[in-house]
Specification:
mainly alpha, globular
Length: 158
């Protein structure tokens, strides 16, 4: 895989983290565990462990449920955005390594995607809720499915 494609995938998994901060690491953990991406022999190999898969999956499921509540803080608040930057860095580094690129470049591309996904996703979601005059969950659930599907698509490119 060429480095430009690997970095594009690292940025894109960051976008997934921007949409759902814990979906990206859950998908990447499953991809590493199932052998879709190779992290063996790297400092990131822990991501494919049974423990990481279990923890990230449970956290991602909890996030998908919590996102449906009206009192859940916006993804663009400092805490929400920080989580997306961190998980974008982790998952971006994983996909960069899997693509043969230094993890540091992926750890830079991923958070940029996380920021883009957070703000872009927020504005699209708010705009659709207002334009369609539907409850927030009517847009949130399809957004969940898009994040999961896009994450699986990206992780399966290796």
């Amino acid at each position: 895989m060429n480095s430009a494609l690997a970095l594009a995938l690292a940025f894109s998994i960051g976008v997934v983290a921007g949409l759902r901060s814990l979906t990206a690491p859950a998908v990447v953990a499953w991809a590493a565990h199932l052998g879709w991406i190779n992290l063996h022999g790297t400092p990131l190999s822990f991501v494919g462990s049974v423990w990481a898969v279990t923890i990230f999956t449970l956290l991602a499921l909890a996030e998908l449920v919590a996102d449906q509540f009206p009192k859940t803080p916006s993804r663009t608040t400092p805490v929400g955005l920080s989580a997306r930057i961190v998980t974008g860095a982790l998952t971006g580094a994983c996909l960069a390594v899997a693509g043969g690129v230094t993890p540091w470049l992926g750890a830079l591309a991923g958070p940029l995607g996380g920021i883009a996904g957070a703000f872009g996703g927020y504005h699209v979601r708010v705009g659709l809720v207002r334009a369609l005059r539907v409850p927030d969950f009517a847009i949130a659930i399809p957004e969940d499915l898009i994040a999961i599907g896009l994450g699986l698509f990206l992780a399966s490119r290796f």
